[in-house]
Design a protein that fits this description.
Blueprint lengths: L3 E5 L4 E6 L10 H16 L5 E6 L10 H5 L6 H19 L5 E5 L2 E3 L1 H8 L2 E4 L4 E3 L13 H9 L1 H10 L2 E3 H6 L10 H13 L3 H17 L2 H15 L3 H8 L5
Parallel strand pairs: 2-3, 3-4, 4-6, 5-7
Antiparallel strand pairs: 1-2, 7-8
Length: 252
């Protein structure tokens, strides 16, 4: 049985759904590998201009399949490190996509599920959404980029507090903290509508804007951003839409 479903959901929009609701979409190695493959297909499809990720049933993703990943306490640390590096690819593949991505957080996003949600560019929370950085509560160090993602989303102080206490943030608090948009009564529908609006932006332009934002976040270097923007803006100068606007102005 497939654990990840990928389907067209409008012009230029792809919907990816985790499909193991009996386990609240807990992500083991098999689901992670399927997600990597699905995201690779999205990356290679020039017709996809926006992506939505969600979970089937009442949960977005209730975390890692702990027995599958950590059920052998005698396994060598180096071997576990290698297994985890491979597992992290599921989140990082989404993070690395060039097109805009939206997480429709319909329910709990815990641990690995939180990482998957944070790997998306935008998170739309439903009323039942929760964001659980619960690693320390179960005696596990955060992984999958969670410390980096939370610092970027919440700032260092709030991220450290959340991680040390293993806190779970509800939908209203997540919105107040800027971790998510909403709450929306129907997160998947709202996310698909937003993704449709993203997909209506010219594909190369949307990808360059996303790259510019990512560069600003990762480098904090105004000079580097200005250099990138000057090339990206020059590349967009010949777009038909821009030229339509230029033509509206009278020239002497």
């Amino acid at each position: 049985m497939a654990l990840v479903r990928s389907e067209a959901a409008g012009d230029g929009v792809r919907l990816v759904t985790l499909t193991d609701p009996d386990k609240r979409n807990a992500m083991g190695p098999d689901m992670a590998a399927e997600l990597v493959g699905v995201v690779a297909d999205v990356a290679s499809d020039a017709g996809v201009r926006a992506l939505v990720v969600t979970g089937e049933g009442t949960a977005f993703c209730a975390g890692a399949d702990l027995p599958a990943l950590f059920g052998d306490p005698g396994r060598d640390v180096a071997d576990t490190h290698e297994v985890l590096q491979d597992y992290y690819r599921a989140f990082l593949a989404v993070h690395d996509l060039a097109v805009p991505t939206v997480a429709a957080v319909n329910g709990p996003a815990v641990g690995a599920g939180l990482n998957l949600a944070l790997s998306c560019d935008v998170r739309v929370a439903g009323p039942a959404a929760t964001f659980g950085a619960t690693f320390a509560r179960i005696g596990l160090h955060p992984g999958g980029g969670c410390t980096w993602f939370l610092v970027e989303a919440l700032g260092a102080s709030r991220a450290l507090r959340t991680l040390l206490l293993g806190e779970t943030v509800d939908a209203d608090q997540a919105v107040a903290w800027g971790l998510a948009d909403g709450p929306e009564d129907d997160a998947p529908t709202a996310a698909l509508e937003l993704a449709g609006r993203f997909a209506a932006v010219e594909g190369p332009l949307a990808r360059r804007i996303k790259r510019g934002v990512r560069l600003a976040v990762e480098t904090r270097d105004l000079g580097a951003v200005l250099e990138y923007e000057s090339w990206a803006q020059a590349a967009s100068a010949g777009s038909p839409r821009l030229q339509e606007w230029v033509a509206r102005f009278d020239h002497p």
